[in-house]
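User: quick one, fold this
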Amino acid sequence: MIVVSLSNDLGLGAEISKALGIKHLTTYTKVFPDGEVYVRLQEPKSLRNVIAYVVQSLYPNQNDKIMELLLGIDALYGAGAKEVKAIIPYMAYSRQDRIFLEGEAVSIRALFNALYSLGVNEIITIDIHSVKAMSYFKGKIHNILPTKLFAERLRTLGINGSNTIVVAPDEGAKERASKLSNELNLKYVVIKKFRDRITGEIKHELPKELEVSGMNVVVIDDIISTGGTIANISKYLRSRNVKNIIVAATHGLFVGNALEKLRSSGISKILLILTVPKINDPLLEYLSPVNLIAKAIVKE
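Assistant:
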């Protein structure tokens, strides 16, 4: 086996190969003046008749990163690789997993079909947005959940016990909240979302009988994009006089002024998994998924 890093591997490729004691190769990539992508493997002769794990996260500039990944796969088979498997920490386009309006493309299906048609028979990813999305891949897909990583860090922060509750921002995050609460032996609740009939504003609310004053709250979700939902929930929780708010989110995209919104909402800390490039900010703390990915490879 060999681990091959493309340009957006986040440094994970070298760490995975080190954890497994296998060879690590890099690639040379560039973008031509007209916008076309170029990929060349380093040490291509070492790829003959081996299983190659190619590492590439698909954010930011997801369209370019997808094209680079496709070219990388083609180059690996061209160099004689026996099999090519993809490690994609952040899977772009997974939120378009069905037809919402007539005539739409199912983006994740198109991406998975492209990967499979090039010979990728296995994908390792982290906390994909929906289970339905995985059903479109014709090969084998491992979806790594970072629940234990979050739980371990929260314990060291002293976030446990009867003074802590886990909050899911919507029904889609209910399973994540349930798993984290089980890991930490805590209660969890799904926050209610409704639209104010007068202002039209989206608001969030916990059950009125639930007392959270003075408690630590962990809000868990898979993706922070614009940060609007999490910021609104945090402001509401502060109005209920909670002690601390810690957000555990797998993928931190932070589009636009998301970080400013979140910081001003009263969040104490945001725990993230290293699935997209790091942002250096005191509010953020990144946890490495290397050991989880290495374990997924060993199980093969």
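User: anything notable?
Assistant: The chain has a mean pLDDT of 95.
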